[in-house]
Write a structure and sequence with these properties.
single chain; alpha+beta; D-Maltodextrin-Binding Protein, domain 2; 4-stranded antiparallel β-sheet; 18 helices
């Protein structure tokens, strides 16, 4: 194990191949939050320790763990890593005498770092509940991970404010439409009393929305053109489009571009809830926070992120996953079985599937999934049913966390006026090839 951890530490020092995903702001960076659901009842075997990646679902996971213990007597501990710290916490926790029995990777790149710790799920009941083999993460013939949630992101829109500005969501069907509306709102900002976009914060709690999720768009369209699903050397075909949407965000915002380095995810969320901006790039995971803040379905919609590429008339939301459950093969046999049982219960029982659909707002790729009450999930399904093509999640193919961080720094400097777009292009293209070579030999 010491050799494996040394290898992981060296990889992290170079790249920190951190899960990029959909971060919340419920914990402080660098910390974890967690609790045990209780002691086991007489006869209960094994226990579960889940290192959860998604801070915005911490409360729901704690409640679900407690419900499972009350039903089965098996203790379940859920520890939630703060946004942007998952890989670091996983490295720390996996070395302890009581390591996580259930953890996450973000796809093939993440699996490459952690596959030596992953139990082969082939033949397990939970694997048999998947609706498609596409949601199984494999290494050769072994199944080492299972996707447990499908999510969507786009531009969340306050329809009420948009209508006050004289528009509807139907008026926005392309990048040019979005640009026209946003710039008109900016021109009348003082009269209207709100901005077009929330702050595109580049603080660590927010920058993943742009260095990862927004950066997915130029990658997606290049991959589509070239008929590929990954690459060792991105060409940057659509970086002019990336620049156009980034310029639109930062120049039609609640704040000056020079202020973005210190703006947080909470800032953007608060601005949107308080009616300070019409548009907010984020995902289906944000629905609970918005409704808890007093917003209603009648006010909300999610529209695609248009960048002036592809068939915009038939473009859907960005829909996919980077969240794969893995079971720690170094756990005791009793704890491995307890973890497999807990996973199966989560995706098949009435309590588990209801919590994942309603409390967490998840679409889960399992046969027993319940329909989510999440408006953005429903809108994604409606767009797909209408023939619009979802934009796939290609950001798990980004070569490293270092690549993302360098891109984020270049975007921030460009917004502040201390760097130029050429530096962004270099961070995107040159660093991709360099990081890929560094991590793949």
């Amino acid at each position: 194990m010491s050799k494996k951890l040394l290898s992981l530490a060296l990889t992290a020092a170079m790249a920190l191949t951190l899960l990029a995903g959909c971060g919340g702001n419920t914990t402080t960076s660098g910390s974890v939050s967690g609790s045990s659901s209780g002691a086991g009842a007489d006869g209960a075997k094994g226990e579960v320790y889940y290192l959860n990646f998604k801070p915005e679902q911490d409360e729901a996971w704690q409640a679900l763990a407690k419900a499972y213990t009350e039903e089965t007597g098996v203790p379940v501990t859920v520890v939630t890593a703060a946004s942007g710290t998952y890989e670091t916490n996983l490295m720390s926790e996996i070395a302890k005498s009581n390591p996580p029995t259930l953890f996450q990777v973000n796809g093939p790149n993440g699996l490459a770092n952690w596959k030596d710790y992953c139990y082969d799920l082939t033949g397990t009941p939970v694997l048999g509940e998947l609706t498609s083999e596409d949601y199984a993460l494999k290494d050769g013939d072994a199944t080492l991970g299972i996707a447990y949630v499908i999510e969507s992101y786009g531009i969340i829109t306050n329809k009420t404010l948009l209508e006050q500005a004289g528009y509807t969501v139907e008026d926005i069907q392309s990048f040019e439409d979005l640009k026209k509306v946003a710039e008109d709102i900016t021109a009348r900002k003082d009269e209207l009393g709100f901005a077009a976009f929330t702050s595109a914060g580049m603080d660590g709690s927010s920058d993943w929305r742009f260095k990862t999720h927004l950066a997915n768009l130029p990658i997606y369209f290049e991959y589509q053109d070239d008929g590929i699903g990954t690459t060792e050397a991105i060409k940057g075909t659509y970086l002019d489009n990336y620049k156009a949407i980034w310029d639109l965000y930062i120049n039609n915002s609640t704040c000056a571009p020079t202020e973005l380095a210190s703006k947080t995810g909470s800032d953007a969320e608060s601005e949107f809830i308080n009616g300070q901006a019409v548009f907010f790039q984020n995902g289906s995971w944000e629905y609970g926070a918005l409704t808890a803040g007093g917003m209603t379905d009648d006010q909300l919609a999610m529209i695609p992120i248009y960048i002036g590429a592809g068939d915009e008339a038939n473009q859907g939301l960005c829909t996919g996953t980077e969240n794969y459950w893995c079971v720690n093969k170094d756990a005791s046999p009793e704890n491995i079985q307890a973890t497999l049982d807990f996973m199966y219960w989560c995706v098949t029982s009435e309590t588990g599937t209801a919590a994942m659909a309603n409390d967490m707002g998840f679409v889960i790729p399992f046969k027993g999934a319940q329909e989510s009450n999440n408006l953005f999930v429903k809108q994604d399904a409606e767009m797909t049913a209408a023939g619009k093509t979802p934009v796939s999640w290609n950001f798990p193919t980004m070569p490293s966390e270092q690549w993302k961080n360098d891109l984020g720094s270049a975007l921030t400097a460009y917004a502040a006026g201390t760097g130029d777009w050429d530096a962004v292009v270099s961070a995107f293209v040159d660093n991709w090839a360099a990081e890929y070579a560094l991590l793949n030999g």
